[in-house]
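Much of what follows relies on a compact textual record of a protein's fold. A record is reproduced here so that you can trace the correspondence yourselves:

. . .
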Amino acid sequence: MLDATTAAMAQSIQSLHAATFAGFEPLQPPAPTTNDPVYVAALHACSQLGFIAHDAECLARAWLAQSTRTGQFDAALWPSDPRDFGLQTTPRASAFVTCPQALGLYAVLPDANWVGRMARAGVPTVQLRYKSEDAVAIAQEVRKAVAAVAGTPALLFINDHWREAIAAGAYGVHLGQEDLDALTHEELQTLRCSGLRLGVSTHGYAEMVRADAVGPSYIAMGAVFPTTLKKMATAPQGLGRLAAYAKLMKSYPQVAIGGIGQDQFAEVLATGVGSIAVVRALVNADQPEEAAASLMAAMRG
């Protein structure tokens, strides 16, 4: 039970931001780790707005830091200052090699043939997401993908298979949160020293803070809309959350991903992200090259 003052603060936060973060079921707040009224109010409000426990906790701590830094509690001021989340200051002490701030259309593709086809069609950023348990086949497919983009300006990221990406001389690698967490300190240093760019998937505030700790080359944020491509650990984030994430992480190149069709490009780009990743919009298209041209035109507005 909240005291009257804390309850009023929580209600103010919730009512002022309900429209921005509409569409999520209220959740039970996690146990507070401090009794500060700003923290407790924000923890309850963010839980009522549908943020899962570790994101509500992350936001509550940011709200407390913001109030301490500014010397006042402002329910209308949603936290968006990197300092309040403990993000690295720029230039970052720990960081991977940079990549373009706007990666443009980002095609996530199942094999090297698709990678080459979309690179030749002019897609600026491509990712090989090759699923196999065969180590030899994986290494071969990564090498084929690197060869497939040769002579094109396409930037090639390899999903998951970072050792093979290093060996083949890819432009970069993309890792999910679990893959990032599984790296030892030595493996992370090997990857950083290789010169490969690193992209990291995130699904909310806590994961963005975790990703920032390693200073990736770009941050992927999603899933923005419902997608059937794979089982998602979190609910679709929606445009309101995407805009808040983009504001917080504006010093990074950002990629929006998850269920995004061409009709939604304008509203997704309006959040401030510089790249949109697509899968089905290309691989399921009757004319993939024509679809790529249309999507790239939509990226240009």
Q: What stands out?
A: The chain has 13 helices and eight strands. The beta strands are 104-109, 125-128, 155-159, 172-175, 197-202, 218-222, 254-257, 275-278.
